[in-house]
Design goal:
By secondary structure, the chain is an all-alpha fold. The protein has a single domain, classed as Four Helix Bundle (Hemerythrin (Met), subunit A). Helices cover 71% and strands 0% of the residues. The radius of gyration is 14 Å and the shape is globular. It starts with a helix and ends in an 11-residue tail after the last helix.
């Protein structure tokens, strides 16, 4: 989760500096890292079986945490949307609109906070800096 927290801060910093595409990239990685941490906390035996691809993490997150009700569908949709925006930011010639980047950074902050709460409540990991 520390990696997710750093990426979230970086996303906000890049957005404030006017680097829209960089902010989208870091916002996605904040969510990606938080999703990975939540998966590992829910089942440590997954450590060797996940992480080979972005799609693999996202699919495992959906299958194991959203479909089983640990994480809401609304929160899960944030991760999928972030992946779509990151692909635009990183691989297409056009930049992401400032308003879309701002929304994505806010959604990353929401997602990371939700994973901190999930870790603290359901899986007994109290590493949320806001909760200490």
């Amino acid at each position: 989760m520390a990696k997710a927290d750093r990426a979230c801060l970086s996303a906000r910093t890049l957005l404030d500096a006017g680097d829209v595409d960089g902010a989208c990239n870091r916002a996605y990685y904040a969510m990606f890292d938080a999703a990975r941490a939540a998966l590992l906390a829910s089942d440590p035996s997954l450590a060797s079986g996940i992480g080979k691809t972005h799609r693999g993490i996202i699919n495992a997150f959906s299958e194991r945490l959203i479909k089983h009700g640990s994480v809401s569908k609304e929160v899960g949709r944030l991760l999928k949307r972030a992946e779509e925006v990151r692909l635009i930011a990183d691989y297409r010639g056009d930049s992401v609109e400032l308003a879309d980047a701002r929304e994505l950074v806010e959604q990353a902050e929401t997602f990371v906070s939700a994973m901190h709460r999930q870790l603290a409540s359901e899986w007994g990991n109290n590493d949320d800096p806001q909760m200490s």
